[in-house]
Design a protein that fits this description.
With about 220 residues, this protein is α+β, with helices and mostly antiparallel strands. The chain has 8 helices and 5 strands; from the N terminus they run αβααβααβαβαβα. Helix content is about 40%, strand content about 15%. Strands 1, 2, 3, 4 and 5 form a 5-stranded antiparallel β-sheet that branches. Helix 2 packs antiparallel against helix 6 and helix 4 runs antiparallel to helix 7.
Length: about 220
Amino acid sequence: MTGAAPRPAPAGAQDRAALWRVMEARRDHRHFRPDPVPPELLARVLDAFRVAPSVGLSQPWQVTVIRDPARRAQVHASFVQVRARERLSFSGERRDLYDTLKLEGILDAPLGLLVSLDLPPGPVLGTGGLGGAPEASVACAVTLAWLAATAEGLGLGWLSLVDGQDLRERLDLPPGRPLAYLCLGWPALTLDAPLLETTGWARRRPLRVNDTDVTP
């Protein structure tokens, strides 16, 4: 008869405090210095994908590192097209404010990380129910890389205003569906609050929790 599995030891108080400092310091950066990112720092950020959770342990991601300014200019061209379309979703003062927002750092950041959905062949365990699990797995991995970058003092900005198919054609990418373009570099601004809060675009909302065990 086997005994109960040992419970994992909780992290120490200093480690817990450090984790929360990193999570609360994480920002979506748009302003970068041109200084290069040392290879060892990039390797540590990318190592977050190794430990990230994924549905069925499928690790359904592929990361393309983009350093060449000419290739980053192609990404920026795609962004300009998508932003021009998105601004039409807003009107009046909201569109005026949208036009003032800096929504990317593609040409400023020395590195771009294009993260693509790249599923393994055959069925993936855990994907027969709720949809979107592979995409959610990619988002989890990106989040861990974001925290790793923050812990290293780097800035990371997640850009979604690009067209995946357009990028594949412009950059001649390997197979996979682009899901995120990450600008990575040394931040040029210290952000004590999310940039979209300081510009007046949005505010954080309280967490909404539905506890089904509580009788109204």
